[in-house]
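Bumping with the actual sequence this time:
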Amino acid sequence: MTTHPALNTRFCKMVGVEYPIVQTGMGWVAGPRLVSATAEAGGLGILASATMTFDELVEALDEVRRRTDRPFGVNLRTDVADVADRIALMIDRGVKVASFAQAPNAELVRRCQEAGLVVMPTVGARRHAEKVAGWGVDAVIAQGGEGGGHTGSVPTSLLTPSVVDAVGQNVAVIAAGGFFDGRGLVAALAYGADGIAMGTRFLLTQESRVPEAVKEIYLATPVTGTVVSTAVDGAPQRVVRTDLVDQLEKGSWLRNVPRALLNAHRFRQETNSTLPALLKEGVAMKEGNELSWPQVIMAANAPMMTKAALVDGRTDVGVLPTGQVVGTIDELPTVAELVQRVVGEATEVLNRLQG
């Protein structure tokens, strides 16, 4: 397929991919099979390491490398005790991009760049983009309110151009939130972005590790079937509206604290995190996101409740993070089919606009 030259953006040159399409580092979902399939299809796959132990990350990176020799990225937690070891491992395994769900600090940005990594945090507000741009990051993912999981209130159509204006020409901008086809990719380019990132659309592919029965729940969810709730972990998070979410919404944070403390213990066991490391991360979360201590305690809910649904298939006790775009998706293509479709549609739109 001959693609339109406008799709060869500076982001493609920066990270060495064919197409300006990013598969986000979704916790418990973005494993080696999905990441390598995205890389092989010409996009940038991001491995979710935030829910992995160091040894699991070693195994995952080795598996990605067995499957592909193309560029890919790894999503990192900002305050884990072994972050230096993880960065060293990423360099050793030839990882191209360090992605952060929460803003890294200036020292971490410098450390990654000195090691040759492209640094790409996710932001949800213009002021956050300005802050990380001042630290010299290479790119940002600007996620609008339509996005899944933790999200802000500013829609993608307003956030993207404001972030583009804020960071100037020195930082590549990847738009996220509400994208699923080639028309959206062209719209993002028109706003000044250098590409798009998709989470839910990649979650609903053949290579996604999410159980098939859970995928069917996603496919049956209408565009009005999601809710942005603070009841899961204290911070706004877009999820599929289920009976469990309705119960959490009706309860008080005090009633949900015991569940959060239990989940914090389980998450510490899952990731081999130390208690001091979790406390340090909690302090950073509180200060960086202006949360109360009850909200910080509740934050322990998110990883384990997500794992319950997306790994164990227990939607009765787990939550289903999703973008609002879920209501537009009704099938499960392979990653290769999805990427080629998006690129083909974008090329057709660009050719038509050129007359």
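The tokens above came from a reply further down the thread. The chain has two domains: 5-211+328-353, 222-321.
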